[in-house]
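User: Predict the complex with 2-oxoadipic acid.
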Amino acid sequence: MRNEELKLLASHLDRATLEAREVEKLTTNHPQLSLSSAYKIQEIGIQLRQSRGEQTVGYKMGLTSKAKMKQMGVDSPIYGVLTDKMQLFSGQRMTLAGRIHPKIEPEIAFIMSSDLKGKVTAHQALESVGSVCAAMEIIDSRYLKFNFTLNDVIADNCSSSAFILGPLIKKPNEINLANLGMVLEVNGKPVEFGSSSAILGSPAESLAALSQMLHERGHFIPKGSIVMAGAATRAIALNPSTEVRTHVQGLDSVSLVIE
Ligand code: OOG
Ligand code: MG
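Assistant: Here is the predicted structure with 2-oxoadipic acid placed in the model:
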């Protein structure tokens, strides 16, 4: 795809985000959209956000669990970029204004204490982690009915809308990240149960996979980055007048109040 066309598609998705408007998925009119063009559209979309003053603060992995792949009908992990404007704070009250059809999902996040580059094992990846925490992600696909192919969702920055980190826990090496119970509660009632093992076997594997995927595109994970490892369960629709909380065994909890 030519650069001009990639730019047009990126600004089409950017406008849909700003106007909280659903649009037809790109592959309906561009069935030939490739994985590499999709990541280029994602990158141009991030540049548009940067031109409005947003700063990139990290990455998110997506579709790292069987439950999510099945829910969305796609079959391999993907990554997107996080900006400072997407960050909400645990316990914060928010309205759903400005979002299209938001859903929320339980995650685990890392804060990097050093750069992480190239092909690494999960063990090596953890050596670059300063702290780990319970997290939630709000996803809000810009596509009609949350329906897309893998390349569509990559172009749409992997449906990212917002992320929320719980209290940071130091020394991730002291916790066995591969099997932590995770519960998503709405108004105090558990609605989704999972294990961190659902995230590619362990969130540390997801971090290593991100490093490798970025390396293939000439990028790396800089020191200080926030990395969302991916959801452990299906995502659930966000509704007004609810309190949503995720507990992760050994990692405290993170919450959000929807007005
Ligand atoms: C794509 C984003 C998936 C995750 O954690 O698996 C994702 C989507 O489901 O719309 O963020
Ligand atoms: Mg996610």
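The longest strand covers residues 129-139.
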